[in-house]
Amino acid sequence: MINNRIFKSNINHLSGVISNQIVDTLDFGFDTFDQQVVVENCIIDTLILHNAHFVGGLCLQNCIIKNKVQYEMGGYNKMPIVIKNNIFMSLFVFLDCIFGADLVLTDNIFLDGCTLYNGYNEFDNVIVENNIGKMDDERWD
Fold first, then answer.
1. pLDDT tens digits, residue range 91-129?
2. Could you list the residue ranges that cross the membrane (predicted)?
3. Is the separation of the CB atoms in 81 and 101 below 8 Å?
4. Which one of 15, 65, 107, 113 is at 20 to 30 Å from 141 when CA atoms are compared?
5. Where are the beta strands (DSSP E) in the chain?
6. pTM of the model
7. Domain spans in the chain, listed from the N-terminal domain onward
8. In Å, how far from its chain's centre is CA 76?
């Protein structure tokens, strides 16, 4: 298991890559990341994205996320945010996010749905392809 606080406090000084890990809690909440953050090939129990600003971009790929993801008041990216080839076991909530560069959601499985198209997000450019699951869920909890 990884205690994310180690990554969170040092991620701008490291390569920004978390790979091939089993993670209890990955907490990016209430932080700004100027460099690209890459999370790949991980099993994550809890992913916290509340008020996370990935200015340098984010690549979340080939992961299994077990619990609900609440991406609220986030984005503010100048580089692409790519969420690709993941399995989300619970609801993925996008709420009040502003994406200034590409938001790419491709080849994901949303077992309990996703609220991408709930009307409360702003996109400069959104690319949504080959996802399985309801993308316009209106639930909050």
1. 999 999 999 999 999 999 999 999 998 888 998 899 999
2. 87-105
3. yes
4. 107
5. 17-19, 22-27, 31-32, 37-40, 43-48, 52-53, 58-61, 64-65, 69-72, 81-84, 87-88, 92-95, 98-106, 109-110, 122-129
6. 0.89
7. 4-129
8. 13
